[in-house]
Amino acid sequence: MALKFPIYMDYHATTPLDVRVFEAMKPYFLETFGNAASRTHQFGWTAEAAVEDARETIARFIGASSGKEIVFTSGATESDNLAIKGVAEYYASKGNHIVTTTIEHKAVLDSCKRLQKQGFEVTYVSAGPDGLVNPDDIRAALTDKTILVSVMLANNEVGTIQPIQEIGKITRERGVLLHCDAVQGLGKTPFDVQAMNVDLASITAHKLYGPKGCGALYVRRSKPRVRLVAELDGGGHERGMRSGTLNVPGIVGFAKACSILMEEGAAEAERIRGLRDRLHQRLTAELDEVVLNGHPTLRLPGNLNLSFSFVEGEGLMMAIKDVAVSSGSACTSASLEPSYVLRSMGLDEELAHSSIRFGLGRFNTEEEVDYVAALVAEKVKKLRDMSPLYEMHKEGVDLKSIEWAAH
Ligand SMILES: *Cc1c(COP(=O)(O)O)cnc(C)c1O
After folding, report:
1. Mean pLDDT of all residues in 341-353
2. Same-domain check for residues 41 and 189
3. Is 387:311 a contact under the CB 8 Å cutoff?
């Protein structure tokens, strides 16, 4: 098959809609367009039935005991905000301390920052150099004022999969609620809110071949029953936790995307892992000084985050314009700050600026991998040929020992 350009290898940012998901959604735009909250006619009943069906499917996918534990939102940003601010506000009389990690998504970190302005205390636990959070560090951060711990299932930059089950044992033992941003790991690595003692979980459809603008928050209903203060005032939808007319086609698509992963997720993960390893092997066969960021084995099958020393990630991306990837420089803002995730893992600024995140997924092929590997190897060599630092390194000069006159 001929290659089609541009080639998409940025599946951590978003995923294309699976055509099977699109087909499942279609009637809910055009024919059965009712408002799921309309109780007085067939249009409403049909929409409501579709939503309740989707709720059960999504609940089953994450190991929840009932569809009633699924609160639909506009996406994981909203789910993270609702979980953290909603719990903080409800349990404020019990304690004012929250524990999270330095490598969380901005939706979690910025929600915590907002709470700090309101008088809450937040402990940010660092990940190790491999991106792994140590459960003992979480345990050590807990105080008798801690009401919530928030740790992600898998990191969106380096793909490291966190020991949620161990962390869940600790939080349950201490009677502290555990929130997990499960967006990146869901469907790619085991996730089960019961087995892992997770009390709240954020998920979103567009990271698993579903539509954008549709997410959910899992809120445990028993042992313990989790309570939260709603962020939106209005009609009292979603058992009072999230007002607003439900995105029925989006929700139907979300559930379809989950069904597909329940059927095919395990086999798909193996196929994508194979492609990812092939890309990694080809690049390291052609190039020296390539550093793998994140944990070598405990990571998402489609994630490959590499630093190409002596090459600017931004420059490399420009050189491979018909391949969509992202770099460790620009992903957080318009400024060229190096990634806070890589920096907090202890990576030096140079290597953080040299990083490229390849995110592989469902529709990537072996031909694409081979093309991208060859192109990246060629461009890295070219860029290094123009680098005096690389030249010095090749001649055996220890660059770290040099005192630079100016920075
Ligand atoms: C993409 C992402 C989010 C945000 O989800 P949206 O549905 O786009 O708001 C939150 N957390 C993680 C880890 C993500 O990768």
Report:
1. 94
2. yes
3. yes
